[in-house]
Amino acid sequence: MSNQTFILILSGIIGILSGLAAVILKQGVHSIQHFLTEGFYKEYANFLYIIYPLIGISAAYLLGKYIFKDGGGHGIPDILFTISKKQSIIARVKTYSRVFTSAITVGFGGSVGLEAPMLVTGSAIGSNVGSLVHLNAKKRTLLIGCGAAAAVSAIFGAPIGGVIFAIEVIMMEISTASFIPLLIASVTGSLTSMVLIGKDSVFNFKLTENFEASHMPYYLLLGISCGLVSLYFSQAVRKTESLMASFDSQALRILYGGAILGIMVFFLPPIYGEGYDTLNTLIDGNSSQLLEKSPFFSIIENPYIIIIFLAFIILVKPIASAVTLGAGGSGGIFAPSLYVGGILGFLFAYSSNLFDFTIPLPLAHFTLVAMCGVMAGAQHAPLSAIFLIAEITGGYELFVPLMFVSAISYVTKTAYQKDSIYMMQLKEKGRYLPESKDQELLELITITHVIERDLLPIHPEAKLKDLISLVKISKRNIFPVVDEHKALRGIVTLDDIRDIMFDREKQENLMIKELMHSPPEILLATENMQKAMEKFELSGAWNLPVIEDGKYLGFVSKSRIFNAYRKRLIKQKQD
After folding, report:
1. Which of 17, 107, 461, 553 has an alpha carbon 20 to 30 Å from 335's alpha carbon atom?
2. What is the pLDDT of residues 232-282, one digit of tens each?
3. CATH superfamily of 3-429
4. Given the DSSP bridges, would you call strands 488-493 and 523-524 parallel, antiparallel or unpaired?
5. Distances from the Cα of 234 to the Cαs of 94, 102, 230, 420, 501, in angstroms?
6. Spatial distance between the Cα atoms of 496 and 517, rounded to a whole number of angstroms
7. Does domain 437-574 have CATH number 3.40.50.720?
8. What's the pTM value of the predicted model, to 2 decimals?
9. What is the residue extent of each domain of the chain?
10. Do 561 and 541 form a contact (C-beta atoms < 8 A)?
11. Residue 398: helix, strand or coil by DSSP?
């Protein structure tokens, strides 16, 4: 069997396993929510909403920490960091732990999504299958992408969207040979979901209205609005998580987080869980049903109250998601970004139609297109957003506005904030990923691996004649001046002594400490190669000394780095 055929078979297996995990997770959440909420909305004010999230977050945290030994929090940033810094090796426990902890978190009302935990599960399945059959890091990364594609495909019933998401967010680099396994994994993941639970997706509707070119000016305004809302979404999540992290005790995080989330859900019931049912209700044109779920607004039939109600949801949903994760719950912000976008789009069209500003705008179209816009802005994944929403609608009727709004939203967001929400979350933890392929390859090279130790050192109290003795046997033209404590005092180059090296008097009387001078820059053994290259660039030097704990180790040359880089590049192409 050829290597390529073997990878294709593995991608199919990973697709099936990821699809099965997605079905278990979806059905588990729906079962918990059905048990907890069935029949409560209209008959009671449902004060149980105040304690449900606290119970769910507490149970998820305890289960993750003491049973699975796997904490909650975000999933996608951790995957990106694992691929970049940990050779694409994901802990085996993640192949199942997030299925249970996120099902409990979301089922009990945690205001996060299932997509990120499912992506972690699918990616962990891919990584561990790759490790099981002893594949290298590059092929493990490909199988991680297969797991991620299958997860998105199984959840949304969108195989193309799954492939695009894996390429755009997870893998960043793709070749034709790598593209085929992603397709197979995505298709098998979607088929597994269809076979087990039917063709039901998170959105159950078909578009009935046609796209009108006359609506494009309003889509322009919607795109700008999506960009600004995605900016707010990212900042709200980041600042809320920072606030939650300021609590020293995990018990306090759970208590405060659960209580705050419970109060939010009590006043704004649509925040409960993922919220996709709310979007289905809006797209079907039944916006008044949202108020029926609230103990305060159920008897009010006023369109202006609906506008205020939805505006509050847009403002509160990102905070609720961050509180859920910061308190110890398991989930992701993939679904909340779609949810906020859907609410924004509906509110945009609903308000315009209510106040009769313009020609009537189709509610379903603007709801779906805004979902695409906010996802494109918050996650910096415009292509994934376009194809995901296009597939969800069952066709490509909205392809033009989807492309237009996602582009406008992305440009608007990046004008104020260059990083995606995932990069922001990594940087908050002090984790920085390479921004280019060159930087990624450089980070695979460590300073200690390219140190040259063949430069002959000399003591600062030695004389010129001692240095000349070294010149006779040395193949280098740089001589580090090192004292008895192995501390670097300076350097002497052949050019420094060329004019005086044959002067007999100076050979006997001139001390090395009088000849030495400071190097143009010093490298630390703990610095990464990107920082080292910056020092080379700024100093204009070709060779720089390396220091560790105040002691001289050797020199690093540009030529040695370039040679190591070339070998890494060749090896990567061969893999």
Report:
1. 17
2. 999 998 899 889 888 888 888 899 888 898 888 888 888 887 777 888 888
3. Clc chloride channel (1.10.3080.10)
4. unpaired
5. 26, 21, 6, 8, 65
6. 9
7. no
8. 0.77
9. 3-429, 437-574
10. no
11. coil
